[in-house]
Fold each of these.
Amino acid sequence: SMAQYCHLSSDYFSHQFKENTGSSPIQFLYNLRIEKAKELLAEAGYPDGFSCRYHVGHMAVRQAYGEFFANALGQIGIDVEILLHR
């Protein structure tokens, strides 16, 4: 979308973006979102994050999703304990 807005090919835009910022457009946006999430946590009274539990079913796909979820939240300071239902 950014490349189209600038009337550039996506490859050229990505190359120029990375050359000027040091990261790809996707990584740049990801980092912005992480920082915004940390700001919102701080505004909500959790500047150091918090801990919680996440219950998942015993199926492998649900466990994988739970681990992905926990990893993503861990990047903003939320410690997620995965609990398996049997």
Amino acid sequence: MLLPTPVMAIGVFVVMMSVLVISNAAVANSPSPVPDVTFQKLDGTPMRLSDLRGAVVLINLWGTWCGPCLQEIPHLVRLAHQLKTKGLEVIGIALDSGSPNDIQAFMAEHGMDYAIWMGDLAMVKKTFHVMGFPTSLLIDREGLIYKRYFGPQTEEVFTHDVEPLLE
């Protein structure tokens, strides 16, 4: 039986920390078309992602039950306020978060005045390859996923990535 050595323990620690850093980061990969799926506004109106073509969109996949999502909300509110006039659409997709009334009460409590739609958790996880929450997708004007974010992000991170797409 092989017993762990201090060097092995350090190696395992480095690998685990790398996974944590990567999972809480933006991942830039080659742009891919955003899947054209349908969500529902809180009033029940269906909305397709293809309806957003021509705009720069930040989709935030979240839930009222998600602690890290709660940390990110103030950053999204400020981002939406700062860049709305430049053409950014921030849309939160509430997953497994109760009724529209429950979600509206949560939004009021947390000052969320950007668009919130409702989605199916299983479909979102499968379609967008989501492994945890929050997950965000930055979509360019051509409808391509420009960048994926895993874990809570700051307003500064989003602004850095969004502003070049708004020019």
